Amino acid sequence: SNKRLTPIEKIQQSEPYRFFLSTVYGISDNYNQINAISLKEILSPEHGQLVRSAQFNYMFDIEFLREQYPPEFRLKPLLIVHGDSRHDNHTIKTQCSPYPQIEICAARLDIPYGTHHTKMMFLLYETGLRIVIHTANLIQQDWKQKSQGIWISPICPKTNDNTNESKTNFKKDLIEYIERYRAKQLQFWQKTINEHDFSSINVHLISSTPGRHTGADMNKFGHLKLRQTLKAYLGLENEAQYNSAPIIGQFSSIGSLGPNANNWLSKEFLTSLKQLHSSSLDSPELKLIYPTVDNVRTSLEGYMAGGSLPYNMQNAMKQGWLVNYLHKWKADHRQRSRASPHIKTYLRATNDEYKELLWFLVTSANLSKAAWGVLEKNNTQLMIRSYEIGVLFIPKQFSQTTFSVSDSSSPSFPIPYDLPPVKYQSSDKPWVVDVAYKNQPDSHGNMWDPS
Ligand SMILES: CC(C)c1cccc2c(O)c(C(=O)O)cnc12
Q1: How far apart are CA 425 and CA 448, in angstroms?
Q2: What ipTM is given for this predicted complex?
């Protein structure tokens, strides 16, 4: 149908998953209705009377952000939570100086090369508290022609019984995440989260915070939190049938993963992703989705899209072995094959048909040790450099045994890209940001010469 949905209708029809892609400027409007939403629609006054909000992110354009709020909400208190990296510290203060209602919190980054990747909104309405966890920077370019992922919670009502936890432990996990900032300006929000009823939340929180996590903290963050959550909640009957079920990782940047797959990817990291009770010998297929040079060149933004795919040559040249795992970005069923991915997702399908999923994760975390953590000191500590956050969908929490992907009876899961993934052809190369591409012009007739 050609009906344009209102923000509230979009959220209602997204039930029970509440998982969206950002709207894309330049595709047919029909593909910007179902499970697609813009920043303005997320902040729409339709959802209720905003009291105050907090925006956790990496990159900010404060003027752009203010424009996305309805005029009547621009004077409400706003807390900006960013990394204290040189990259944007001074600019943030300058950008916010005209607005006394904007407070700034610089997240501590005590471990070198860590970043504040977390992208999250706290929206406090008179009717309750909404959490939004997503993958887009608060700059115009991130919300115009890219594929971004967004999870929007229900508006959780105020309660004086602070035990109103969700069946997924979301409230406790979110408070524990916030506590790790050890920031005064976040105390109000810790208290506010505690005062709201989270019982309607059906996703698990998977976050990362900088640190060398040991003992009881080891399973609280990073890939060990994912491992523990899958182990505890997947609860599959005769799980043996899934031992070789394929796993997909999809991301917009790649760290230094070591001289071969066994270093971290297919041992430590894959062990967490394949977590079933029985750690069987069959190793599932791990397929990785990351844009080719041609994906970027032919994208709606052209080579400029590659500016947000910061995989550098220094890392790429050390891990040629990775190309064998790589698959193209292809999202024809969402009309987003040319909307360059900035979303990051991980999933496990039941088999090579990819008709059903065992779980699905949308997160800020790219494929890197900095984001997911790396085991150290004989596996007694998990070292994480960055702040990350994401939400994990497990079928049991939706009274299903698997998520159906095809448009069959049960509410099919709105996957962001086409399945099964398509392998790189021999002529395909992964996009690398700091090399020149001057043989073929992009969709705007431009070349890419970073020097
Ligand atoms: C390597 C750094 C400076 C970088 C370049 C381009 C895009 C980036 C990005 O999008 C994020 C993020 O989204 O958190 C984080 N760093 C990004």
Answers
A1: 22
A2: 0.99
